[in-house]
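Supplementary Text 2. Reproducibility record for the structural model of the 486-residue chain.

All settings were left at their defaults, and a single model was retained for analysis rather than an ensemble. We include the record here because the model underlies the residue-level annotations in Supplementary Table 4.
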Amino acid sequence: MLLSEIANTLDAVYLTQTEDILIENISFLSSKKLKNALYFCLKGNSVDGHNYVNEAIKNGAVAIVCEKKIIGIDEKILQLLVPDTRSALAFASAKLYNYPHKKLKMIGITGTNGKTTTSYILHSILTEANINTGIIGTNGAVFNDKKLELNLTTPDPPELFCILDQMVKSGVKAVVMEVSAHALALNKTSGIIYDVTAFSNLTQDHLDFFGDMETYGAAKAKLFTPQLTKLAILNADDEFGQRLINKSLVDTITYGCLHPSDVFGINLKMSVGGLEYTLNLLDNVTKIKCNMTGRFNMYNTMCAATIAGAIGVPLKKIAEGIRKFKRVEGRYNIINTTKCSIIIDFAHTDEGLKNIITSIREYVKGKIITVFGCGGDRDKKKRPLMGRVCALMSDFCVLTSDNPRSEVPMDIIKDIAKGIDELGLKNYTTMSERTEAIKYALNIANEDDIVLIAGKGAEKYQEIHGVKYPYNDSEYVMKLIEENRM
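Retained model, structure tokens:
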């Protein structure tokens, strides 16, 4: 594509002038070698892409998009000035791939917890309705039995629009996207106006990036503005959800059980085998049965059902799609052994732990033994909160490593333990090696006990000192079961 075509899309100002040139790639990584690339100078908290232009040129950049003129580079390198390089990156990526999002039914879901599960439930519903649907989120990009691994919940714009383009070419008609608060704060989805967006909940997380809950919430709230969506699906039982409802400037449908809502559920029944309840979807009533248990999964199914109903899926197809839905990898995955039951889940916030342990408590006959840790180089404030919740609600806790990244594992574990020690509780032990912690928990478990392994879910690695080592909780547990013939 010619640079002038992209420049017109950005409404950019030419700081230098040369003949029109061909652009084959878009990049914001100066170290990445790409032929005929348009390089975007992104500004971050610690890194400013404007300082790496020479490296980008060396690696194939033929033009740059900047927020200030770069002095001292080859005059043949064309410079385009824009007010916000992050938004410009998204608009340019969309243009390069011929606006694939405009050829798809776009659905965005945000919230601290529940995004992935809700996405997969909705995928099952839309599949039942014969709508070829793709997913983009924490567990990767999935479409037509193809799966692409992703490093981020919401990919950076060049990758995001490339994936959307692949989906269009593969016959996909609808896309369910997890839209993270980071992506919204960094304008990764600029230019996309979603047909429907949904909000699950807001609890403490990512304060290492956002600083406080107001800033974190404000980032998520951006998804429910006329600039980004046509219709908002909002959780009326969440405190922040109520704020979104009261301030909404777009058409809104609410769901919940505790506050007056357009969509609500009653008569919930739960067991280890799943849940069932009566759903009232805009005055249309049906029985919902789901193979996943937990009150929070009632909310996930209600959210998915509300989205599906909003885009015209018949109620019968909605109920059948939920019934056929089996599970999401790394979300409330139950493994039954002759010794005990094991649940593997991605819960990585205090609210996430509270939700899943509450659901287990409703049917467990024995003890709940919880194995979990907290990620390094991330929100430290939530560590003692997670410790408190776990110790109060579990019978015993094994504090261990998650992804320690650059931090010392035992330093993270001590931060978690502070929350427990403040309560005067002693129902925990510490083991920095995650594999040893899991092995210990299974060894002390008895019949009717449930061992909850939380935090990593479907992740296929453990990041230690900048290196991602192959590791998966489910695979390790299955190995232990086979070795011990459990």
